[in-house]
Amino acid sequence: MEQKAWIVTVNMGYGHQRTAEPLHELGKIINANDYEGIPEKDKTIWQSMRRSYEFISRFSRIPVIGKATFSIYDRFQKIFSFYPKRDLSKSNFTLEKIYSLFQKGWGRDLIEKLKVKSQKLKVNLPIISTFFTPAFMAEYFNYPGQIFCVVCDADISRTWAPLKPKESKIKYFAPTERVTERLKLYGVKPENIFLTGYPLPLENIGSEKMEILKEDLRNRILNLDPKKKYFEKYGSLVLEKLGSLSEKSDHPLTILFSVGGAGVQKEIGVKILKCLTPWVKEKKIKIVLSAGIRENVKKYFEKNIKKLELEEFYRGLTPVRSIEIIFEKDIESYFQKFNLALRKTDILWTKPSELSFYSALGIPIIISSPIGSQEEFNMRWLLKSGFGLSQEDSNYTKEWLFDWVNRGYLAEAAMEGFIKGEKLGTFKISRII
Question: What's 388's DSSP letter?
Answer without folding.
Answer: E
